[in-house]
Every structure is written in structure tokens, then in C-alpha cells.
Amino acid sequence: MKSILITYDQAHHEAIIELLDRSGCRGFTGFGTVQGRGSSKGEPHYGTHAWPSLASAIITIVTDDHVDALLDRLKALDEAKPLLGLRAFVWNIERSI
Predict the structure, then answer these.
(1) pLDDT 10s digits, 34-76
(2) For residue 25, what are the contacts with CB-CB under 8 A and spacing of at least 6?
(3) What dihedral angle (degrees, nearest 10) is formed by the CA atoms of 62, 65, 70, 73?
(4) Which residues, 6 or more positions from 81, have their beta carbon under 8 angstroms from its beta carbon?
(5) Which domains are delineated in the chain?
(6) pTM value?
(7) Which spans in the chain are helix H?
């Protein structure tokens, strides 16, 4: 099992949910509004007057065989709208209940 944390501009939200559905990833937890700044480029997402955009985050736990297809779809979405910002991080899940 793998955990995938997806952070993204709120404008991507509906597309991310649809992408999870198409990828067979039913379960997820959304973190709603989060703030952040990309490590190499892109605008900060602070929700302030100077930087009004905000980000969201979703974490999903998937079987190993779902990871590559999901990451490929997320990468395509990011490449289609690179200025919005989208990142995904994968971790091993050691145990769950």
C-alpha cells in the first residue's frame, strides 16, 4: 500500500476528484484550504491581498498497482496548467487498521 499526498491550486479541485474516480481511488481525505509555496516556481498560495490564491490537499491510500497510473494522470493535469501548481508525494504504508 502507498499513501499519495496531492497538493494543488483550488482551481484543480473538481479535476482531482474526477481523476481519483477514474483511477479507482475511492477513499481519500481532503484538507480543504491550505497555504503554501512551491519549491522552485509558481506563485505563493497564501490567501492574502498580495497572494490571494489558496491551495488544497488530498491524501489517498492506494494499492501499489494504482500509483503509476495516478501519478501519470496528475502529471498530465499539472502540465496542462503549469502556473496553477500541483504536486504529489508517495510514501509507503507500513500498517493500517
Answers:
(1) 988 877 777 788 888 888 888 999 999 999 999 999 999 999 9
(2) 60, 62, 66, 70
(3) -170
(4) 11, 12
(5) 2-92 (3.30.70.120)
(6) 0.90
(7) 13-22, 64-80
